[in-house]
Amino acid sequence: MQRLAGILAALGLAATALLPALSQDKAKPAPASPEVVQLFETQVRPTFVASCLGCHSKDNALGGLRLDAPVTPAMAAEIVKRVKGEGGKPRMPQGNAVLAPEKISAIEGWAKAGAPWPELKGMVGGKLWSLEPLKKPTPPAVVLKAWPRNSIDNFVLARLEGAKQKPTAYADRRTLLRRASYELTGLPPSADEIATFVADKAPDAWGQAVDRLLASPRYGERMARFWMDIARYSDTKGYVFTDDRNYYHAYTYRDWLIQSFNEDLPYDQFLQYQLAADRLVQGDDRHHLAALGYLTLGRRFINNLHDIIDDRIDVTMRGMQAMTVACARCHDHKFDPIPAKDYYGLYAIFASSDEYEPAISPKAVREPYEQHDGKFQAAKNEREATLRSEVKRLRETVKAGTATPELQKTLQGFRENELPNDAQRTALLPSFDPAKRDRLAELDKTMETLKGSYPPKPEFAHALREGNPRPGVVFKRGNPGSPGDPAPRHFLTCVAGDNQPEFPTGGRLELAKAITDKNNPLTARVIANRIWLLHFGTGIVRTPSDFGRQGEKPTHPELLDWLASSLMEEGWSLKKLHKKILLSATWMQSSDATEAAFLKDPENRLYGRQNRRRLEMEQLRDSLLLAAGTLDMSKVGGKSEELWTGSYTKRRAVYGFIERQNLPGIFKTLDFATPDQSSPQRFKTIVPQQALFLMNSPLAADQARALASAVTGKDETEKVVVLYKRLLGRTPTKAELDLALSYLIAPDKAALKADSQSGGAWRYGWGLVDDAQGRTAAFHEFKAFIDGQWRVGTKLPDPVDGWVFLSREGGHPGDPKHQVIRRWVSPLEGTVNVSGTLNHPGAVGDGVRGRIVHSRNGVLGEWIAQKSQAETKLTAVEVKRGDTLDFVVDCRTNENTDGFAWAPAVTLTGAKRQAWRAERDFGGPPPAPPVPLSKWERYAQALLMTNEFLYID
Q: CA–CA separation, 49 vs 471, rounded Å?
């Protein structure tokens, strides 16, 4: 907003018109969750500092607005409108510095949360509980001595007895096995597994059952997905403008996680590899390099290096240390002992590394490919160098005036820093030096041979390696253009002290060792808390990625320290920590509670019972497929695949393709963790869309069909029993059986009927406008949809009707009798506005004519575009239900070079500003109506929707 005052003056706008008349002095910050504080400090405040304070601060409050002080929710809502360019007022910041979409989204999220504004207080005194040295406490004595099964229970029972409460009775064996199976593998046990465990009278039966679950390859898949939330895993980069959005090798990081958890890689090494595998890997085994995906698979921020590094600092410090270090980007942390110098010391560490994509497969696969690819790249590089040399020589002949007109014309077809395309190269070849021409032919042949004979391709990783060590410096107010004091590469001073030496080389390995140092009080506490959260649904610290003052304090600090100390004593083994928790009486409690106990401790902060939890998205999907017998668990690892739509994979959900920018709605409906940033835990919502998914999604219907067809028995009673065992691991009660039979035996009067599906408000075809009548005289709908185009038939040009087609952006008319028509059919009565741009980009030809024809009122507008574009706006067009607006394009006189772009929008005026946008709404033919479910299929689907199936007790 630096130039805003001058621009406003030029536009003749008063500065006071910037915002509504709202009093900022009375703005009181709304209360904020730790997540919203994190959003504000890491994304919103830095944006205000970088883009807004030049015009909206204490010294220059243009329009009465300050963005260095709290604002009201109404002002925040207006700010959102301004940065989005809505409301018919100047977009902010004005000029060329339009905010990136992700920054606008962050401001919008902050505004919707009530525009909280954390106070910039001085540092709160006193040492943080989480920074106190870690010492293993002695389990306390308890009155109910018979209840504890291990030391965990002493800590929990002592708190319960202090509050004059008692623990809940143990859950039954079926519930225990189902709970443990979901927590450790993400899948339910089979009916046979339940029956075997229930019948096992051995004293260590439960311990053996836990060991079997921990030894299952499904354990690694479950734990990998748990960690992928923390690592903000995605198969794509997010918004990158025109760059390639895909992380093609992201899956190798996920597969590394699965293998590491299955092998029980010590947790300290697990962290070290994710920060500095390139410094730790030795010899020919490179598979650990995939671990660096923890750092490299974040958002790309349109390749803004400062934001990329900020993201890496955040995922490292919140994910591994539960400290919100990214809040110190613009100033010293205002709540925790983290100066900006610490932030920029870490910044210098990550800035000293370069990205690369090494092959990580075994040497026997890797080396033949690398050698072959080296030959191909050498031939390619020589070919490119030869072409450049010859093109440069020919351009010199142009400058000397000795080139032919044809040669000059060809050379003008591409820029000096570009290589000629195939057609241009063919035209230039006769002018090349004969020896160079022959060499190019040899290289082409060599490349073609090599291209067709590549050995098997190895797997690759998105990794980092040490670059030139970068000296650190504090950016004043987070502005890279305003360097301040030096910030040597070092770890957090609140952990390692003020006198630590600067890290040598890049510093990532030293950082990894500092994080996993046995004297670091954070690391073991953080992971012990996360594992507890996995088994209880809540952490001992309920803000698992914030152990600072903005986070919550632990409910059982001694228990947390005991778990963390035990983890380190036992070689950082997570499997041993899992087992310790699952063998405790605390974990084995039922989730049922008396009314009195619930009233005394409604949030179960004392852990006097288990917490009932709904299945997570991946557990739900996997359980649906497993129950139906369609889940593919034939292998571990592999490339990511589509989970929900089309020919969706039957593999486990952990192998699903995660699209960061356009995450499908079902992920959000089922509370999937956002891949935009490290997620400490998943939100828990109960909304109608979750039930609607189970009722209407093709995947759920497919599994209900497969489940019903897989259930066999001599009669309906036996089939119901089989279905219950398959879904719920038990037999039905008499009441449940009677209810099922009364439904299944009764006549099927509720068979679903398939509704025909329309293609929306738009139709696509060709026809003719009667110039005399000013009406569309004929409209023929296109029949073929190929390669994103509506056409007359399968061939283009059509043998009879020529080049006539429509696409998302525009299309091509045929001869004067074959005019393309994009028809909008009004679904309501009202007044609409029409907007759009008719563009004829061709360099030759007589251009195109665009007309908008109303079914009752005739031609409403006509425009010509010839090597130009024309705005096609209409206002206050009255329509009734069923009226049509035809957007007609004809070739004028000659259809040659008449490709055009015209994707209009029709907007309803008034309060409901509904819009129909041709580009957004464009699509192929509607899908075929779903096949109705049979009565047995509907019954199976109903059981899939029961709380007993969807919840873990």
A: 24
Runs of H (alpha helix) within 85-172: 101-112, 151-162
Q: How far is CA 755 from the centre of its chain?
A: 33
H/E element, 586? helix 585-588
Q: Which of 58, 488, 414, 462 is nearest to 235 (CA)?
A: 462
What span, in angstroms and rounded, lies between the C-alpha atoms of 108 and 101?
Answer: 10
Q: Is the dihedral of CA 421, 423, 428, 430 positive or negative?
A: positive
State the 10-residue block means of pLDDT for the chain, 953 residues long: 33 36 56 74 80 75 80 87 81 75 85 80 65 97 97 98 96 98 98 96 97 98 99 95 92 99 99 98 94 98 95 98 97 94 98 97 94 96 96 94 93 92 93 96 96 94 95 94 95 94 94 98 99 98 96 97 98 99 98 90 96 96 95 96 90 97 91 96 90 88 92 93 95 96 80 42 94 91 92 90 93 94 94 95 88 95 94 95 95 89 93 86 80 89 94 95
Say which residues have a Cβ less than 8 Å from residue 374's Cβ, sequence separation at least 6: none
Q: d(Cα 4, Cα 111) in Å, to the nearest integer?
A: 23
Q: Which pLDDT does position 31 carry in this prediction?
A: 66
pLDDT at 862: 96
CB atoms within 10 A of CB 663: 16
**Taking Cα atoms as reference points, which of 52, 51, 39, 54 lies closest to residue 105?**
39
Q: Which of 230, 212, 225, 301 is nearest to 257 (CA)?
A: 225
The CA distance from 550 to 555, in Å, is: 15
Structure tokens belonging to residue 305: 């290096």
Task: Check: CB of residue 823 under 8 Å from CB of residue 886.
Answer: yes
Can you tell me the distance from the alpha carbon of 825 to that of 823, in angstroms, rounded to the nearest whole number? 6
- Quote the DSSP letter at residue 40: I
400 CB-near residues (< 8 Å, 6+ apart): none
**C-beta of residue 386 within 8 angstroms of C-beta of residue 444:** no
Element (H, E) at 475: strand 473-475
Distance CA(210)–CA(105), nearest Å, equals 44
Q: What angle do CA 789, 792, 794 make, to 5 degrees?
A: 75
Contacts of 816 (CB under 8 A, 6+ apart): 890, 891, 892, 893
Per DSSP, the three-state class of 810 is strand
Burial class of 349 by CB neighbour count within 10 A (0 to 12, 13 to 18, 19+): buried
Q: In this structure, which amino acid lies at residue 759?
A: G
331 CB-contact burial (10 Å; exposed 0-12 / middle 13-18 / buried 19+): middle
Q: What is the pLDDT of residue 61?
A: 73
Tell me the backbone φ, ψ of residue 113, rounded to 5 degrees: -80, 5
CB 219 within 8 A of CB 184: yes
The Cα 851–Cα 722 span in angstroms is 65
Domain 762-921 class in CATH: mainly beta
Q: How far does Cα 145 stand from its chain's mean position?
A: 49
Characterize 717-727 residue by residue with b for buried, 16 or more Cβ atoms within 10 angstroms of its Cβ, and e for exposed: eebbbbbbbbb
Give start-end residues of each CATH 2.60.120 domain in the chain: 762-921
Q: How far apart, in whole angstroms, are the C-alpha atoms of residue 185 and residue 219?
A: 4
Q: What angle do CA 432, 436, 441 make, to 5 degrees?
A: 100
The C-alpha atoms of residue 869 and residue 887 are separated, in whole angstroms, by: 16
Nearest to residue 269, comparing CAs of 527, 502, 497, 533? Answer: 527
CA distances, 214 to each of 57, 171, 179, 184, 207 (Å): 57, 21, 14, 7, 11
* Measured CA angle at 521 (ends 518, 523), to 5 deg: 75
Reduced to 3 states (helix: H, G, I; strand: E, B; else coil), residue 896 is coil
Strand partners of residue 57: 60
- Take residue 352 and report the two structure tokens written for it: 């000293």
First to last CA, the chain: 55
Check residue 10 and give its pLDDT: 35
Instruction: Quote the pTM value.
Output: 0.73
